[in-house]
Amino acid sequence: MRRLLPALLLLAGLLLAGLALGVFAALGGSGPLWLRSLGSVALAGPGPGNFTRGLLLALLASAAFALAARRGREG
Contact 3/75 with Cβ under 8 angstroms? Predict the structure, then answer.
């Protein structure tokens, strides 16, 4: 059970990092099609501006990575 939370945080961080990269790829119009498609999904719907949304996703991803690393060292 102790290793489950860091693993879940790491997976959440990877997903959020992928979404953030996709947002910036979609905004720039370059990159692989799958990454731009992922960014288009993240950009859909109401919320903050596109660049702000990408920055927030990157911030959340880094926070999830930091929590996963911290929990991994404690366990």
Answer: yes
- Residue showing tokens 């979609």: 26
* Alpha carbon distance 53, 34 (integer Å): 19
pLDDT above 70 covers a percentage of the chain that reads 95
pTM for the complete prediction?
0.76
What tens digit of pLDDT does each residue of 18-40 get?
888 888 888 888 888 888 888 88
